[in-house]
Amino acid sequence: MKKVFLILVLISSFSYSQEIALMKYNGGGDWYANPTSLPNLIKFTNQNINTKIKTKPATVEPGSPDLFSYPFVHMTGHGNVVFNDAEILNLRNYMLSGGFLHIDDNFGMDEFIRKEIKKIFPNNNLIEIPANHAIFQGPFVFSSGLPKIHEHDGKRPQAFGIFENNRLVLLYTFESDLGDGWEDADVHNDPKEVREKALKMGANILNYIFSN
What we know:
The protein is α/β, with parallel strands linked by helices and 212 residues long. It has 7 helices and 7 strands, in the order H-E-H-E-E-H-E-H-E-E-E-H-H-H.
């Protein structure tokens, strides 16, 4: 029933306003970091790639049945993340039913989130997504793959994914910090070209999930 429901949500999203959500999780990490990022990304994509996303994102918890109402859920933060058994099952069912989870490490989340992803998909490994993957090809081209927005540890940016039946169901962006780039210009004082690069990559992610 959940699978049928989500398919209907995805189909109807092409005729009516789509709605995306921010995940509110437990564990102590600041799930609420970057409060202006998703609204700015929505505004950018509605103006530049003809999406029809509601301007205010929803907030959803990982164990909630409401999760299945959103084709795209974004998750970010700096610290600890903990999913209980019910949340793990709900998240797995959500992604296997057509939902998409984007996790953006806002620096400090990596050691925690990898453990939780493994609980959700114990038989799958995070796979680095190559630069020639469709998510980097349009509508904006990133020939080198995931862009670097903030330095943090100075490591190269990496996009990791969980695939089910050749479908990307979970995207984990590491050492990039797209969400910071989506924030209001005066939050981090990033140059215009850096913010634009982050927003374009975010638009690619949304375009990918609404097209696949």
